[in-house]
Task: inverse folding
């Protein structure tokens, strides 16, 4: 475009940021205005390496991909320097650059699609649905507000990772001495029941208590239920469970 | 559309803006909020425009209307259509609570699995959740275990695969397969441009 | 309401039901789901009614319209009101990064596709991007490939279509006709391992 072309060697790329080695290659091919089917491999390789050298430490985590491409370029360059064998009849001589060309063109093609998707994304960001729709559906009884949005595979994976991490953390707690006995918890439950006659199941599991204590409470409750000392009742299907003292029980 | 007076066009456009705002709002929209956004608009004018919009909806037999509730204006379906909406959503894909999702994920990876193991991992009672998952045909009883009391074992169903778009159970990714991202690389940053799409409509 | 013929009234009421269902839904609503719950309704008739509704909205200067997206219908505001609604919502939706867009483009055309093929084309590691795309429900795991280690295969989701406002995969943007190889050379298949992606629309 410029009238005075400073020459292809002057392409400066240091300040630019690239998505990856192919992004850089496409840039170099376009900037040098060379034919992608006849890439001046020595020139492009030199500029590619120049960029690599200029990469600051903050880009180092992606440097491996660039180094890999640099190695490919150097290999192609070396093969280009080899004297070409006389073409044998019916046998195509493979251009060492062919694979590279295919990679560049293919990448370029997908980048065009990405650009078009980007335009579509921008267009979509200008239209809005009813942000209130989910609320209205819940109000109409057409969906349960207790339930989350439609779960995806990603949600499933995340849930599993979270729950396993939590369980692993609890396992560490379980190694600590329990420090509470079933008898302690039976007394605790009786104390609650004596005061109110009934208690909510959930409230017996004291928040902040180690989970090992909950297990002891649970075993204590099972024991008491087996002995007929207490009765467990659930209001409705998913409702709260209550613990009642069996009235006729003569507590000895 | 062509020969309208400038004033009329102006009114029509302000009417459409008010309509767009009430339509897209995620909560009841007070008149003064609208007046604060649209220039040369007053709460009283908003009230007039809403009345005009509602008259139009009625005239055209639209299925919705703008209702004034405590906090402001909401665009809602007319009550006579509620039945259809309920009917539609009875047949829709079930949604899952966090508790259901967690339990389901353990069943998916550990199947066939007993209730006690599920409770051991989640640390809470899972009876209710299990029941819902079975009712929704995401989980099935797959037999009985060997141990004490021969506990029921749970596994996922065909419906489960369909729900998560999986061709078969084998395709369920192992957590370590998807967790390959190096920890120093925050994925959100990688997915999104830093400053993102602020600003007005695109050229 | 007044002297309309029974048939006309019937039509008007069915139109209102379709409108109510699309208005109330919080995701794209397929025509066959509407047809499935309303008597004597077919998907083709739903299409006609939607066209009629849209003509009415245009005539009345409504701020919204019904758009065909991700295999269903969704009621959305017209783009000219975007500026006002963005003022209302305050925070703007973040846009996808270049890495995410490029990865999505390849998945869209090559699905189902393995991670190695994505990395071969992009020339960079895609672990982090893939994980986040799955979490964001733009990409799903669609099975496992045949090759060594049975790699996970990735495909796009319905959410992907909705995000980009595409009615279906056929509507994906076409790249400019770029020849992948000079005309006298064999086509690209030879250059890739056989495992590559079948299925999906051709670029």
Result:
């Amino acid at each position: 475009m410029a009238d005075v072309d400073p020459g292809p060697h002057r392409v400066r790329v240091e300040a630019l940021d690239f998505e990856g080695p192919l992004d850089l290659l496409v840039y170099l091919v376009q900037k040098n205005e060379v034919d992608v089917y006849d890439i001046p491999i020595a020139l492009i390789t030199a500029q590619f390496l120049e960029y690599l050298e200029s990469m600051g430490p903050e880009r180092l985590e992606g440097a491996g991909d660039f180094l890999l491409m640099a190695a490919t370029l150097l290999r192609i360059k070396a093969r280009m320097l080899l004297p070409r064998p006389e073409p044998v009849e019916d046998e195509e001589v493979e251009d060492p650059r062919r694979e590279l060309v295919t990679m560049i063109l293919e990448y370029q093609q997908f980048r065009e699609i990405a650009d078009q998707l980007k335009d579509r994304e921008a267009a979509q960001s200008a239209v809005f649905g009813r942000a209130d729709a989910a609320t209205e559906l819940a109000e109409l009884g057409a969906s349960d507000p207790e339930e989350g949005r439609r779960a995806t595979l990603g949600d499933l994976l995340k849930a599993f990772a979270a729950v396993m991490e939590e369980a692993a953390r609890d396992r560490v707690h379980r190694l600590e001495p329990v420090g509470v006995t079933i008898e302690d918890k039976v007394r605790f439950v009786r104390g609650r029941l004596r005061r109110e006659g009934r208690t909510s199941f959930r409230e017996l599991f004291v928040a902040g208590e180690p989970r090992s204590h909950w297990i002891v409470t649970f075993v204590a409750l099972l024991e008491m239920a087996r002995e007929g000392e207490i009765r467990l009742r659930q209001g409705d299907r998913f409702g709260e469970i209550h613990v009642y003292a069996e009235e006729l029980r003569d507590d000895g | 559309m062509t020969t309208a007076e400038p004033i009329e066009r102006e009114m029509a456009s302000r009417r459409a803006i008010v309509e767009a705002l009430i339509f897209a709002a995620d909560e009841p929209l007070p008149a003064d909020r609208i007046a604060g956004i649209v220039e040369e608009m007053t709460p009283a004018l908003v009230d007039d425009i809403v009345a005009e919009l509602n008259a139009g909806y009625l005239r055209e037999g639209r299925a919705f209307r703008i209702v004034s509730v405590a906090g402001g204006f909401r665009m809602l379906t007319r009550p006579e259509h509620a039945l259809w909406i309920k009917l539609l959503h009875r047949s829709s894909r079930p949604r899952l609570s966090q508790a259901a999702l967690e339990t389901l994920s353990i069943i998916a990876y550990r199947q066939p699995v007993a209730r006690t193991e599920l409770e051991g991992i989640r640390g809470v009672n899972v009876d209710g959740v299990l029941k819902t998952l079975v009712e929704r045909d995401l989980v099935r009883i797959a037999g009985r275990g060997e141990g004490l009391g021969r506990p029921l074992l749970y596994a996922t169903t065909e419906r489960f695969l369909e729900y998560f778009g999986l061709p078969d159970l084998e395709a369920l990714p192992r957590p370590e397969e998807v967790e390959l991202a190096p920890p120093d690389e925050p994925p959100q940053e990688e997915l999104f441009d830093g400053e993102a799409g602020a600003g007005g409509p695109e050229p």
About this structure: Chain A touches chain C through 54 residues (CB under 8 Å). Strands of chain A lie at 198-200, 230-234, 241-245.
